[in-house]
Design a protein that fits this description.
Layout (H helix, E strand, L loop, with lengths): L1 H40 L1 H8 L1 H4 L15 H32 L5 H42 L8 H18 L2 H10 L5 H6 L1 H15 L4 H48 L1
Helix pairs in contact: 1-4, 4-5, 4-6, 5-6, 7-10, 9-10
Length: about 270
């Protein structure tokens, strides 16, 4: 009978969790739909902003236009542009909903800690996207344009252009989360600065390989991509050391308070 009751309570708890997750997802979806309606109202301005790097390679940029291969591609491009901008606007709200979903499973101190990290997560994500857009993307676009214009008649299609833009910019938004993720994982005891120092050489090698894969094949371009990634890793190590020290101090203070309480109870 006890096992049956436990199973029933477990099933009810699972249903409640799924219902809460469904509610959060629906709210995020509604927010995204509202954001895409808003961005669609300004899609022309957003489009012009995103293709400015292509404009500057042509002497008369007023006559330059990205190509489409069919009537359906026109609507696809508009929704792609509006959708990318809507995702950018929805990310903070989505992260907040995720925090609200996991909050009941956290202790009050953990919930407050996660909430303090939320603005930093959003800020670093946007910083990575802006870095990728204003630095890495023009670098790659410039190289590929110069390489292709020597031997080919270049005609850019809109879907290829925006696909290339998204594939370059969005990963840097995730890369810039490295220090924040390291801080949080160190704070909850999953990572230690000693481990990050131990695997440093392997991390450097991986970042150099990644930089060589996503940058033009010349030494300066490789450095332009690899150096920021390495600096972010070193920032993550420094943040981890500081966070680990604070965690050890907090644990020592907690143990001291607990020892005092036990001593008082024994008296």
């Amino acid at each position: 009978m006890s096992q049956t009751q436990d199973q029933t309570q477990h099933d009810q708890s699972m249903i409640e969790h799924l219902g809460e997750l469904r509610k959060r997802l629906i709210r995020t979806l509604w927010f995204f739909l509202g954001a895409i309606i808003l961005t669609f109202c300004f899609v022309d301005q957003i489009y012009d902003f995103l293709v400015q790097d292509a404009y500057r390679f042509f002497t008369d940029h007023k006559d330059f236009k990205l190509a489409v291969l069919g009537p359906g591609d026109i609507l696809k491009v508009y929704f792609t542009v509006a959708g990318l901008a809507a995702v950018f606007l929805t990310i903070p709200f989505m992260l907040y909903q995720a925090w609200q979903f996991v909050r009941p499973a956290l202790h009050e101190r953990e919930a407050q800690l996660a909430l303090r990290f939320l603005p930093l997560v959003v800020a670093m994500l946007f910083a990575g996207v802006l870095f990728g857009y204003y630095f890495i993307f023009p670098l790659l676009f410039d190289f590929l344009y110069q390489l292709g214009s020597e031997k080919f008649q270049i005609a850019y299609t809109a879907d290829k252009y925006f696909g290339f833009l998204a594939n370059i910019v969005l990963p840097f938004g995730l890369i810039f989360e490295m220090p924040v993720a390291t801080m949080f994982l160190t704070r909850i005891g999953i990572l230690t600065p000693g481990w990050l120092v131990k695997v440093r050489k392997y991390a450097y090698f991986a970042m150099v390989v990644i930089a060589s894969m996503i940058s033009p094949p010349d030494f300066v371009s490789h450095l332009s991509v690899a150096v920021p990634m390495i600096l972010l890793y070193e920032a993550a190590v420094t943040v981890s050391k500081w966070t680990y020290k604070k965690r050890q101090q907090a644990l020592a203070a907690y143990e001291a308070d607990y020892a005092d309480e036990v001593a008082d109870d024994e008296r």
